[in-house]
Fold this sequence. Notes:
The chain has 246 residues and is an alpha/beta fold. Helices cover 19% and strands 28% of the residues. It has helices at residues 58-61, 67-72, 85-95, 161-164, 182-188, 193-203, 225-228, and strands at residues 2-7, 21-24, 29-31, 48-52, 78-83, 108-111, 115-117, 123-129, 135-142, 145-150, 170-174, 207-211, 235-237, 242-245. Strands 6-5-4-3-2-1-14 form a 7-stranded mixed beta sheet. The protein is globular, with a radius of gyration of 17 Å.
Amino acid sequence: MKLLLLGTTGYHPNDRRQTACLMFPELGVLLDAGSAMYRVSEYLQTPTLDIFITHAHLDHIIGLTFLFDVLQDSNLEQVTVHGEQEKLSAIRKHLFSELLFPVEPPFEARALAAKITLSGGGVLTHFPLKHPGGSVGFRIDWPDRSMAYVTDTVAAADADYVEIIRGVDLLIHECYFGDDMPGQAELTGHSCLTPVAEVAAAAKVGRMVLVHINPLLADDNGLDIAAARKIFPNIEIGVDRMELEF
């Protein structure tokens, strides 16, 4: 199974990274629709596209306004956006307000079901995360592999979601801050590096890749990965267009 990290920063893009967007090209599935959404048409392999939204903050949904370009450059027959109903309503009312964006792209909005079966036999479930305005994480289980996506939350080894992601082969987890800004992380609903490593260790995951990296970091040396690997060895920093096989 191939997972593409199309966008790996949060809040706003910079010259190295676009905002949150993960893609399973073989399945026609996206997790979040940040500013990296314009890259989707390069990788499409399916006639349908299912977009699963963690929450409605702009860095995770702004790419929905790029759908016209994606549709023009592809043979897509159907686009479905899945999310919590109140988030979908906010997107319709605000992002696609005529005063902000004049014509709404053609997509179907669908409230997240408790379990969703994907092509290829995967089952997607969601779970709540601590974040201003509310957010959800996703776990996908196939018969022979599993992954979880946790973004926009305050990491802690005793957080409720740790048990839900236990044992996944691949964990994609946000890491906006190093360890020098725990107060700001708590205030904004984001994670520091050491607690993220502690989550991976507590959940006994196979591998972890960090995303939603602070766009103000000049380079990835702003995160002390060597120290984090003493807690959880199999950790790396995601970059835009990284391809993960798991």
